[in-house]
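Q: Predict the bound structure with protoporphyrin IX containing FE.
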Amino acid sequence: MSKPPGLPSAKPIFGHILEFRKGPMEFMKKCHSELGDITWLQSPFRDITLVFKPDYIKYILQENNKNFRKSFGYDELKVLLGHGLLTSEGETWRKQRRLAQPAFHKERIAYLVNIMGDVVLDTVKQWKEQYKDGDEVNITFETNKLALEIVSRTLFQSDISAAGIDELNHALGVVIEVGAKRIRDPFQPPRWVPTQSNRSSAKAVKKVHEIVSAIIEKRLKSNERFDDLLDMFVHTIDEETGEKMTKEDLMDEVLTIFIAGHETTANALAFTWYLLGAYPAEKEKLLIEISTLNAEKPSMHQLRELKFHRMVIDESLRLYPPAWIIGRQGLKEDKLGEYTLPALCTYGIPVYVIQRSKTYWKDPDDFIPERFNEENIGSIPKFAYFPFGGGPRLCIGQMFAIYEMQIAMYVLWKHFDFSLKENFHLEIEPLITLRTKKPIMMKIHFK
Ligand code: HEM
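A: Predicted complex:
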């Protein structure tokens, strides 16, 4: 049995853990550039391999997916999400996926795009009241707020107040930050130890639960039928047991959609704003495309014609994939190429590093939306570009997210122009999702 090679920098006892903890991206980039397709991360806590080769990734996520479950990182998410669609496994997952899938069908998304448009137009109104021409805007905060409002109004038809959205936004931020630290740093004390970060996380989890619980209670008490995902969850009857979902199950599902559906898209939007600020020539192309359409609130069909918008989004998700790493745990021993991986081995799939690898991309760190035009898109190897994952656990919200980003971009850039603050330097922070160390600040200009 031969294990994949590891970097020679492993230290006694802790192996590579301290190096990884100090800078996960730098460490993984070094593994890939020095050792190629697959490497071993030496750790006293578990067997870990990092996989960079698209064929191997296809094998793990798709071809032999039955031998893999979600890895330990998702356990931290369970603190908040319980056993919702993102974190569940096996038959429970299959049932949940079947149930939620119709809410994300194409025809359904076409209907939701219309509501998304209303939310973005409300944002335009708010910004016009709130900001003056030339003001600085915290794009990270604003895109989070927007994405949260879109999820809550499209999938749960909930009208959480502006203050409620801010509270939820803040509380989710705390939970995610603490959770990410715990995943990355195996030396963190257990959750029951009353450290400051454990206490603030517990408080934030409670707050999120209160807000979501109120949404569910309101719906359970209502005699009206709503045409949304929450109603599907509330009224579904289990074929085997003949029972409806419990309040606890409902909490897990709703929280999952809130978390999985807003952070990722919000960060992707914020990175896209940054890229457009940093690459004025690409921004000009986007503005020209915007000027070709006269709609205040385009339909899904019209958005599909905005080809350059889509290329910008695809390229932004390549450079800054919000889900920067995907993790799995092998159930049985398995083989990748000439290497044998032990049962229960953790497989880290560093999406960010692969999507910026010189092996698969020319000028990998440059923002070149044309990589995704009709002519070039066919030559991108599958699983060298996979911001939404792959195989059966592919992101259920992929199309939702793409159209949400498109409509937000079209409407907001039609009303405003944005420029980067002078000397703004972007530094990424790989938490549960990929974020920036400091918020992205841009100047807003009214048109
Ligand atoms: C740019 C935005 C988004 C990105 C980059 C993204 C990325 C991903 C990725 C990589 C996975 C797979 C994780 C794995 O295999 O371990 C995933 C799963 C998932 N995503 Fe997304 N996502 C985005 C937006 C959304 C939205 C808008 C929703 C819902 C409204 C959503 C809901 C989910 C759910 C429920 C799962 C779990 C699916 C399952 O396991 O069956 N995501 N997402």
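A: The chain has 17 helices and twelve strands.
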